[in-house]
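The following block was generated as part of the benchmark described in Methods. Ligand: nicotinamide-adenine-dinucleotide.
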Amino acid sequence: MSDGNRLQGKSAVITGAGQGIGRAIALAFAGQGAALCLVDANPHRLPEVAEAAQALGVEVLTQQADVTQPEQVEHALQAAQERLGVPHILVNNAGIFQSVKFLDYGLDDWRRMLEVNVTGTFNCAQAALRRMVPEGRGKVINMASVAGKTAAPASSAYNTSKHAVIGLTRCLALEMARHGIQVNAICPGMVDTDLFDGLLVEVGANRGFTEPEALRKAMLKGVPLGRMISPQEVAQLAVYLASPDSDAMTGQALTLSGGHLMV
Ligand SMILES: NC(=O)c1ccc[n+]([C@@H]2O[C@H](COP(=O)([O-])OP(=O)(O)OC[C@H]3O[C@@H](n4cnc5c(N)ncnc54)[C@H](O)[C@@H]3O)[C@@H](O)[C@H]2O)c1
C-alpha cells in the first residue's frame, strides 16, 4: 500500500527509471499514489521496478525508449496517454556520464553526451508539453547536477550538458508559466548509484587515483555533511516538485549536495 497521497490522481512519466535515481523516484511517486509510465533505453531492469511500484497499489506501464530518438519518445508518451491519460508530471532523469580530458575528447563522444543529456531532455519535454499545454497544467522536473553550476577537470561535456539542462529548465519555465505548468531542476551532488561508481573509476584514472574509493574519500572531504546522498533523498525532493506543494516554484535549479555547493 502507498504511504501517502501527495500525488494521488496524478500520472507521471519517468525516464531512466530502471535503476539509480530514476528507480527511487518511481518508488517514491508510487508511494504517494501516482500512476507511472517507466521509460528506459535498457528494458531489462524495468519489470522489477514496475513490480515494486505495483506492490504499492498504483497502475504502472513500462516503455523501452531511447530518449535521443524522438519517435521512440513519442511512442512512449502516446502509450502513457492512452493508458493513464495526459501525464501530469514528467521527470527527465535519463543521463550518462563520461570523464575525458578536453584535448582527448572525440567528436562522437562529445555529441553523444549532449544528445542524451540535453537533446533527450528536449525530446521528452516537447512530447510531454505538447500534451500538457492544452490541459493547462503540468510539472516538469529535469535532473541536472551540481556539475551544471560548477567546473571540473576532464568533465567538459558532462558539465556543459548539465549547464544546458539548467538553461533549458529556465527557458521552459518562462514559456510554460502562462499555461499553468511549472518546470524545475534538481542538482544533486554525490549520489550513491552505478553512474557514480563509474565516475569514481573514470575520474580517478584521469586524476591519478588508482583506487576509486580513495577518490570518493577525497571528494567527500569537500562535502560539509561528509556523506553521499541516497537516491531516496533525491526522490523526496522530486516528490515535492511534483506535488501541489511546489505550485509557486518555477525555473529553479535546486541543489541537493550535503552542502558541497551552497548555491
Ligand atoms: N549519481 C550521481 O551522483 C548524480 C549526481 C548528479 C546528477 N545525476 C544525474 O541523475 C540522473 C540519473 O543518474 P543515476 O546516477 O541514477 O544514473 P544510472 O546510470 O544509475 O541510471 C541511469 C538510467 O538512465 C538510463 N539511460 C541512459 N541513457 C538513456 C537513454 N538514451 N534513453 C533512455 N534511458 C537512458 C540507463 O539505462 C539507466 O537506467 C542522470 O541524469 C545523472 O546525470 C547523478
